[in-house]
Each structure stands twice: as C-alpha cells, then as structure tokens.
Specification:
By secondary structure, this protein is mainly α. It is built from nine helices and no strands.
Length: about 230
C-alpha cells in the first residue's frame, strides 16, 4: 500500500501526540479524581455538594460537546478579556484544551472509582492505625492508599481505555493526533478506509499493551492477598 507508506511518518507522529495526550489527561484525571473522592467522603456539606454537582454535571454532558464548549468558549472569553484591556487575544491551544477537557471529564469517573475503593477498605483498619498513634497522613500512605489502589485498579483500567479512545474527539478542534492525520490522509488519497484501519490498529495496539501491563500490575498487587478477601 504505497499511500500508507507515504503517510506512515505522519501517522507515527500523530500516534505520539495521541499517546502523550492520553497520558497527561489521565494524570490530571487521577489528581482531580482523588480530590473529588476526598471531597465526597469529607464531613463538609459544601465539599460534598460541590463534588456531587461536579460528577453529576460532567458525566451527563457528552465529551464532544464539552470539548467544543471549552475550545470555542475559551477563545470567546480570551477575546473579551483582551478587548477590555485593548490587547490582542492569543489563540487557544488545541493540545492544552484537549488535556484539560479530557482530564476534567474523566476526573469525574475517577472520583467515583476512588470513592468506591476507599469505602471498600474496612474502616476498622484506619481506627486501629489511629489507636497505634499513626498520623492521618501516615495511615493514609501505609494502610488506606495501597489497598485503595488494589481495589480501584479494575475500574481505573476501564476508565483509561475509554479515555484513550476519547482522545479521538480532539481531532475535531484541529489537534494533529493520529485520527486527524488519518482523516486528512484518507481525504487526500481517496483511500479513507486504509487510514482509518491504520488508526484503529494504533488504538488497538495501545489498549492491548495497556491491558497486559495493568493485568501484570494487578497480579503483583494481589500477591499475598487471600482470594476470598478480593470478593468480600
């Protein structure tokens, strides 16, 4: 397939953009998710209400709509602020917009994942840690966090796989990821199926590798844990 060979370097660059976008987005989503889970489990009604409103709103809006709102809405806001000071507004960066939008969206899903995992750790363990003189931070780091990671890993993997596929939406705002390159190459060469299949192969390769790596990680985390305790 000469067309595919000609555009292969561009597709590889697009695949690199997609992978970096996904990794930065999942890091942001995990940070937001952990903060959201802590807020939902806090004693503050205000924090609980804010976190609940966040997860309810974000999970109810399609990723496509949210991406366009942030990209074009952000440009409108910048234009108005710049006009108020008599300045020229910079263009909204498509990559930064995609990272912030996807990370913020999936932060809502990771919030529920981490909240469920934290609730899955027996409360008596934290009470015992405090009785032994552990500080809250030490008890979290040595007791709660390791068990929470083990319990959250299956759902976190599903979130990652969905997030990875969601990065394709970024091509709609002009980000030159693998989907954008495949679409442009398909239009230019009149062979869209060839390049769409190539993009599918890239996503399949990354998702398969991610699944294999996280499966091995789950085995290591569950080492020494009784089988019955995993389903309790």
């Amino acid at each position: 397939m000469p067309e595919l060979q000609r555009y292969l370097p561009a597709l590889l660059r697009g695949a690199e953009v997609t992978l970096v976008l996904a990794l930065l987005s999942v890091v942001l989503a995990i940070c937001v998710g952990m903060a959201g889970a802590m807020a939902k489990l806090s004693q503050s009604r205000f924090l609980v209400s804010m976190a609940t409103a966040y997860t309810t709103l974000i999970r109810g809006v399609p990723e496509f709509v949210m991406m366009l709102l942030v990209f074009y809405g952000g440009q409108i806001v910048l234009n108005r602020i710049a006009a108020a000071f008599g300045l020229h507004a910079p263009d909204v960066n498509a990559f930064a917009t995609a990272v912030l939008t996807i990370g913020f969206i999936f932060g809502a899903y990771y919030t529920e994942t981490f909240r469920g995992a934290i609730l899955g750790v027996p409360a008596g363990q934290m009470e015992a840690a405090r009785a032994y003189g552990f500080s809250r931070w030490l008890a979290f780091r040595r007791i709660l966090f390791p068990q929470m990671v083990r319990l959250a890993l299956p759902a976190a993997l599903n979130n990652w796989l969905v997030l990875l596929k969601t990065t394709a939406v970024a091509s709609l705002i002009g980000l030159q990821d693998v989907m954008f390159i495949a679409d442009q190459a398909g239009r230019t060469t009149q062979a869209p199926m060839t390049f769409y299949l190539a993009a599918c192969a890239v996503y399949l390769l990354v998702t398969s590798g991610s699944t294999a790596c996280l499966a091995r990680t789950r085995v290591r985390l569950n080492r020494g844990v009784r089988e019955g305790s995993l389903h309790r």
